Amino acid sequence: MTINSVKIIFVICISSIFHSCNGQVKSEHKKIETETKAIGKVVSEFDNQIWRIFQDSKGKYWFGSNGRGVYYLDGKELKQFTTIDGLVNDTIRGIQEDREGNIYIETFGGISKFDGNQFTTLKAIKSSYNLWKLEPNDLWFGYNANDLFRYDGDTLFELKLPRKDLKKAFGIDTLISPFNSNNPYSVYGINKDKSGNIWFGTFVAGAFRYDGKSFMWFDEKELSIQPDGTAGGVRSIIQDKDGYFWLSNFKSKYKIDSNKLIYEKIKGIEKNKPYYFNAGLVDRDGNLWMTTYGGGVWTYDGKMLTNLEVKKGTENALLVSIYQDNNGTIWLGTDNDGVYKQNGEKFEKFKLVK
User: Fold this and answer.
1) How many whole angstroms separate alpha carbon 17 and alpha carbon 290?
2) Which of 73, 103, 165, 228 could bridge across to 114 with cysteines, CB 3.0–4.6 Å?
3) pLDDT of 229 strictly over 90
4) Could you tell me how far CA 130 lies from the centroid of its own chain?
5) How far apart are the C-alpha atoms of 302 and 288, rounded to whole Å?
6) Residues 79 and 41: beta-carbon distance below 8 Å
7) Alpha helical stretches, state H, the chain
8) Distance (Å, whole) CA 123 – CA 131
9) Where are the chain's structural domains?
10) Which residue from 69, 73, 39 is spatially nearest to 55, judged by alpha carbons?
C-alpha cells in the first residue's frame, strides 16, 4: 500500500468519526430541544381562581391562576405550567410580552421569562440610586418588589417611588397593615396612558404618574385607606376617550394639565354603589368597562352607567380581572369560577371544546 493510500484511508476514518460525533451531538441537541418543548401538563379545564388573562402576538392565550401556575391555550389544547416546569412561583399576578415574543410571568416569588422552550428567573439589581427611565420597550412589574421593577431587556432594576408625608396628606397612619411588609408604596397597578406616561397605583400611598423626567403625585384620601378601614389599593388606572383618568373608583376622575404638572379632581359617576372597581379597560369604541368583586361588570359610555351580572349559578362570580383580546372580545378572570368570555351582551363561562 502506498503512503498516499494510507493518507486517504486515515482522512476517511477521521472524517467518519467526526461526522459520527457531530451526528450524535445533533441528535442529543434535538432530543434536548424536544424534551424542553414538552414541558407542561395537558389538562382539560382551568382552575377556579384565574386572576390574569393575556393573548400573545401569536394569538395564543395565557391564564394566570392564584396558586396553580399558568395555563396556555393553543387552539383546543390547554397546558398547565407550574414550578415543576421551571416557573418561579405558582401564584400569578401579571403576564406580559416583549417585542421579541418572550413571555414574562409575574408571580409572588419573582418574575419568570419564557422563551418558547423554557422558563428562567429574572434577577433584580438593587442599587443605591434609582435608575429611573421611560423607554417605550421597557416592561414594568409591581409584585415581589419593595415598590416596583423596571426591565430593559437585559437588566431588572428595583426602583423606589418618591417618599411623601402620607400622614399629613391623608390624616391617618398608613403603616397599619400587615400586608406588603407594611410598605404603603407597594405597587398594585401599572398602566400607560395615550401619551406614553406611566402610572403607578399603590397600596395606600395614592397614585403616581411618571413622564420620564418628573413625578406627579395624586394624594387624594379616597386613594388610600377608607373611613371603614379598608385598603383596596389603586389597582387600575384607565384613560377615557375624553382624556380623563379614572383611578379605581367611580366617584372621581382626574384632568391633567401637563404643562403646569398639576391635576384637577372632577366628579365622576354619581353612584353610591359600587364605589370601587378593581380592574378596568377602555374598549375599541371608547367605552369604559369596570369590574367589581361580586358586583358584576359595569360599563360607562360617558352618559349612562350599566351593570351586567355575572353569575355562578345563583351566586355572583367574584371578578378579579378584565381583558380585551385582539379580536375585540372581552374576557373576565374570577376568584371562584374560572374564566368568562363575552357573548354578545352577556358573559358566559368559558369551557374547552372537546
Assistant:
1) 66
2) 103
3) no
4) 23
5) 8
6) yes
7) 3-37, 166-170
8) 16
9) 42-160
10) 73
* Cell numbers given for 220: 387624594
What's at 320, amino acid-wise? V
Q: Residue count of the chain, please give it.
A: 354
Q: Tell me the CA distances in angstroms from 275 to 57, 96, 241, 251, one per residue in order.
A: 35, 29, 21, 7
- C-beta neighbour count of 204 within 10 angstroms: 27
Q: Which residues pair with 156 in a beta bridge?
A: 124, 151
Which DSSP state fits 33? H
Say whether pLDDT at 220 is over 90.
Answer: yes
- Give the pLDDT band of residue 6 (cuts 50, 70, 90): very low
State pLDDT tens for residues 260-315: 889 999 999 866 666 789 999 999 999 999 999 999 999 999 999 999 999 999 99
Task: Give the cell for residue 317.
Answer: 362570580
Write down the pLDDT at residue 12. Answer: 38
Whole-prediction pTM value?
0.86
Q: What angle do CA 147, 150, 115 make, to 5 degrees?
A: 125
Q: Under 8 Å CB-to-CB from 254, ≥6 apart: which residues?
A: 218, 244, 245, 246, 247, 263, 264, 265, 266
How far the first Cα of the chain sits from its last, in Å, is 71
Q: Are strands 315-316 and 330-334 parallel, antiparallel or unpaired?
A: unpaired
Residue with cell 389599593: 233
Which CATH superfamily hosts domain 42-160? YVTN repeat-like/Quinoprotein amine dehydrogenase (2.130.10.10)
**Residues facing residue 307 across a β-bridge:** 298
